[in-house]
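Ticket #4471: structure export looks truncated?
Reporter: QA, pipeline team
Priority: medium

Steps to reproduce: submit the single chain below to the structure queue and open the exported record.
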Amino acid sequence: MEQGKGTKVLPDNAYRKLEPGETYEPIVAASDPRAEITPWSVGLGVVMVALFSAACIYMALRAGNAIEAAIPIAIMAVFFGKMRKVKATILENVMVQSIGQASGVVAAGAAFVIPALYINQLQPSFWQIFLACAIGGFLGTALIIPLRKYFVADQHGELPFPEATATNEILVSGEATDSSAGKVLIASFALGGLYDFLVEAVHPWNSMIGTRKLLGSWGERLYQGARMEMSVNAIAALFGLGYIIGLRYAAIIAAGSVLAYVVLVPLIFMVGSQIPDFHYIGQTFHISAMSSADIFKAFVKPIGIGAIAVSGIIGMIRMGKIIVGSVSLGVKGLFMKSVDQSTVPRTARDMNPKLVILIQAGCAALMGLLFFVVALQKGAEYTTGRAAMFAAIGVLVGFLLSFLFTPVAAQAIAIVGTNPVSGMTLITLAIACATMAAVGLKGNAGMFIVLVIGCAVCTALSTSGALVTDFKIGYWIGSTPKNQQKWKFLGVVVASLVVAAVIPAMDSAYHFLKLAPDGTWVSNSDVLPAPQANMLAAITKGLMSDAQQPLLLYGLGGLIAIMLYMAGVPMLAFALGMYLPISINTAVLAGAFVAWLIGNTGKNKAVREARASQGTLIASGLMAGAAIFGIVTAVLRLDISFAPSIGFPIRFLSVGEKFEVITKDAGVRVLDSTTLPWYDGLVGQGTGLGMYILLALACYALARWGAVKELKAAGIDPDKAD
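Actual output as written to the record:
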């Protein structure tokens, strides 16, 4: 029996252990000369990596979660490949997916760490961001290449590779099915892009819907008496995120928000209002005069940060066996004998080992140069000799941790389909902070170097997990590993360039930090929450400077994470709910609930399953479209220096929010905004709720249409199916 969604192309031993003496023969034999590296495959791969890098970094910054790019890119590769006059080969589609997948991993590594530099007021340059991401991506690629054969061939049938299996089925079934999946993806892309562009740039209705306005006097009483307010940020990006997360995890995330906003914030307000002046961590708080948002940021967010940190550590501990085995595997990889690549079949051919080692050395040299320059720029008191010493130690720490953790990430992806990157990055920062502080590097230079180490290691781990997935897909189908490896470097470069451009643009448009009423700079978590980066910023600032930290609140969050673990509740999901604004998490829950409803409607089981299967397409399209047009909106919020009269173009588009250009000291132009009464009131929010319902209905229509297309392509009558 052969596998592959109705096709006759995937051998029956693709997903099982091989019998003694049995070998696996891929779909495309080693002797098959069909096209693989072509202008089409490389060009479309570059387009995909640029598009999804922007989308992934936007979603990670706005919602605290990145898009999983592999599956939508595979769908688009098949869809556009069939539109050509000469249909793309399956090897070309694999190459498009392999190059494009660099988008999600580089964006994840950057979003996890780079905003922490802004939050700690260190302002990285374009080239510093690019180098941090590119070095990590190159390291992750070069370090996993020697282990390719072990993971994909020696362990064939032993490791389940859940994500690789899903992507492989799409690429394989694309050889024999119609292109309806691509049409659903493109339609949802247009829907998400149009909806969020209207919401974010034109403002014809208010997407921030809250109980304080919708419930009238009751909502106002709840707020004034207990600072209790529920809200939802009704945008397509968050709706799509919930659609793909699923109801269970979305509900757990929302439960964290309920604890934060419905229990902790009112409790702190009612108790704290009895204390005229509350002193904590060197500050004085007048809690009776604080808004719910201020209470959340001052007292509840640190609890969430502590819960996120301990959740990551517990996750690492739970994977102890995998970690120990993977580290020993990485060490063994150093001593593996090199093979003459000219004597091995095309489908087993890797890059020249000497070139791989040269790339690793080049990454170390670039990392050292970056650290040396940063030490001199950020630490004026350091001599050239001390800066060189700091750079050398930083390289040693970064390279060693990347080397140790890379096989861990790869094995975790191969076994459970998830990468414990949060815990490993947290441990990386703790080790880096302790090491650099021990040799005398602290302050701004210390925080900058430590966070760049964290970004490089985080990106390396993400890349290694993604690449081992690519290797397995290529092994099943018959790609050339050497080509996957070489062109992955191109994907990393393009993704790093895009990320290095988008993050500063997002900071200029929305700002990671905002000025609080008391004159201090605080995280702008309502717009750019970046939960992991805020956690890492707090940790590095606490370890590398003399600033006071809310250690008691961090500890309370850690205790909550331990209790969640003991109760069997997913810790990280609940902790993210405690950290992220409730408006984000309720929007995610709404998307998940609609997805659940759509998947449970239909005349029969086949129709219901077909509608549910559209979820990945609709969610990916919504998020990608919303993200791309969200970046367009961010650009519209930037000044145009060469044409001041049309600077900040968004002010000419907005209806419900009025923008004004203000010139401050030294001629600096900034954008100020005020909302109109109808926009903030019941009319604006009520219209926003109605449009959100229409968005849900549009998703239902897309799922219904896509399901009919899918069933008919499979030769099933939707009206007569069982």
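Status: closed, not a bug. The export was complete when the record was re-opened. Leaving a note from the reviewer for reference: The chain is about 70% helix and 5% strand.
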